[in-house]
Specification:
Blueprint lengths: L4 H75 L6 H13 L3 E7 L3 E3 L2 E12 L1 H12 L4 E14 L2 E9 L4 E9 L5 E14 L25
């Protein structure tokens, strides 16, 4: 059987195509599939690395914030008194509040413990003006003890009369005469105030060498004087 040159060329072309197909299917295609899988895996790893870096940044930020808060807590702890010592607290409140209010009453609640802190609720009822109440709040926020105002209720009751002294020269007597008049200035309305406070101190026993400057004979002081 004779095969023409044209048929030989076609057979060679078919064989070459067959070889190329086999080479692609068994060699190139697996290689391309592996490359595609590696590219996909690379993208996934890069996304995971980016997510881990962002997570590490957030953790570092949180650690920094925690460190700052711990430092604040440590600073507060140093400034807080040791043990709940009611007499000096009562003397302090009496001094701060009674000079700016009238008919003052204090009510101490039960002391509770939160981690290393002791918290005592204190309710103060009194009568004062707006300016006097503002002076009390300013004093409480800037003084030696850590006292938190948890609530404040104020009701206007009546106005506070103020005596005004003026002097008039009497030409007959040749001297000044004092004239006293009673006035009700604006902004001097009397308030019925209920002030809720929380007093904070470090838990533990009161230091035995505590000195009570307000009373030289206060050897027996310390703790809750109402029990």
């Amino acid at each position: 059987m004779n095969i023409s040159k044209r048929e030989k060329r076609l057979i060679i072309i078919v064989l070459i195509l067959a070889i190329l197909c086999v080479y692609y299917i068994y060699f190139l295609k697996p290689y391309f599939d592996d490359m595609r899988d590696l590219a996909s895996a690379k993208s996934s790893k890069e996304a995971l690395v980016l997510a881990n870096e962002q997570q590490l940044s957030r953790i570092a930020l949180l650690d920094s914030q925690i460190e700052e808060k711990e430092k604040e807590i440590e600073d507060y702890s140093v400034s807080l008194s040791q043990g709940f010592d009611q007499p000096p607290i009562l003397v302090y409140l009496e001094k701060v509040i009674t000079q700016n209010a009238q008919k003052v009453m204090f009510e101490f609640g039960d002391v509770t413990t939160y981690e290393q802190l002791e918290i005592c609720p204190i309710t103060v009822t009194m009568k004062s003006t707006y300016n006097e109440l503002k002076a009390i709040l300013d004093e409480l926020s800037n003084d030696e003890y850590f006292i938190k105002v948890t609530s404040l209720n104020a009701i206007i009751t009546d106005a506070v009369p103020v005596e005004v002294v003026s002097k008039v020269y009497d030409e007959v007597l040749g001297e000044y005469t004092e004239i006293i008049t009673t006035q009700i200035p604006g902004g001097a309305n009397m308030l019925d105030v209920t002030l809720s406070l929380e007093f904070y101190n470090n838990a533990g026993d009161i230091p035995p060498d505590t000195d009570y400057e307000f009373d030289d004979s206060s050897i027996g002081y310390g703790g809750d004087i109402f029990f």
